[in-house]
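Pilot study result, target chain (211 residues):
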Amino acid sequence: PDNAALRTPVDEALTEVFAMSGQVDRAIEMGRTLLARLGPGLPDARAANLHLGIARAAIAGAQWAEAAASIEVARGSPGADAAQVDACAAQVAIGQGRLAEADQLARAALRAAEDGGPPEVVCEALEVIGRVARQRDLEEAERAFARSAAVASAHGLQLWHLRALHELGTIDQLRTESVDRLQQARELAVAQGALALTAARFARCPEIVDR
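Predicted structure:
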């Protein structure tokens, strides 16, 4: 509380942690508090990132309208990273069942992020591409998820590696009804405290929960 230089980055981190642990309302509230505290003098890039943080928290809670509104604010900021905005928007599109739009946004994000962009965006874009592909071609979907897992592993992105492992486990289940990789992913999610992921993605798999 007595260190203004540290308070803001700590609260930014808390926003992300609240979202990942399933405390969606707290994450959104923290993000909004930060924006209000920092005021109109906040650099454009940082403001855009805060709006995207709020959007990601809303996505974790399936609050699509809230997420879309924050994404549009971020997109209008001169400091916004287009790849991050498109990747986030792709998550909203696929969450609302707009698959063609989700695929288009994710591929745009991937192209931009592959050229020196954040590896997290590469993973996020590949996840959406894989989820869209899974509707028609399991092999194409598996390639996208496997690549996402490899990128996440290479850059030490544990949460994105976990998400990719879950998607690969879902393909195993569709093909052979094997839940081994899903079980591994669930154990990792619990160990990492990714409670939102655990609840949202494994509640639909009673054979995993029962184990």
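One observation from the pilot: Confidence is low (pLDDT under 50) at residues 206-211. A full batch analysis is planned for the follow-on phase.
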